[in-house]
Amino acid sequence: MVVLREAGTNGLPLKRIVRNVFNIANSFFYQLNEEDVYTDVAAYLRTNSRKRGALVKKMDKRGWYSINYSSIQVQQLLFDFGNQEESV
User: Fold this and answer.
1) Are 42 and 18 spatial neighbours (Cβ–Cβ below 8 Å)?
2) What is the pLDDT of residues 39-73, one digit of tens each?
3) Which among 22, 39, 55, 80 would be 20 to 30 A from 13, CA to CA?
4) What do you get for the CA distance between the two ends of the chain, in Å?
5) Alpha helix locations (H) across the chain?
């Protein structure tokens, strides 16, 4: 979700999301296969963007996704995250 939050309302294409997730999760001691990451991320985005109140939504462009800012869950997460930043 961090990747999509940084992208803002413009969203990102699936390949770019996969590359960012791969780079974040991959390490020297835990090697990931990029094809497996692609499969998992694509499945997650596909299933979770279909629900009305989902965290992620499909954009008008094919294969693009962004955070669904109208979702109650997203608003709550942003509210909680905002409180954490102020208390630091």
Assistant:
1) yes
2) 999 998 888 888 878 888 888 888 899 888 777 77
3) 80
4) 22
5) 2-7, 14-25, 34-48, 72-87
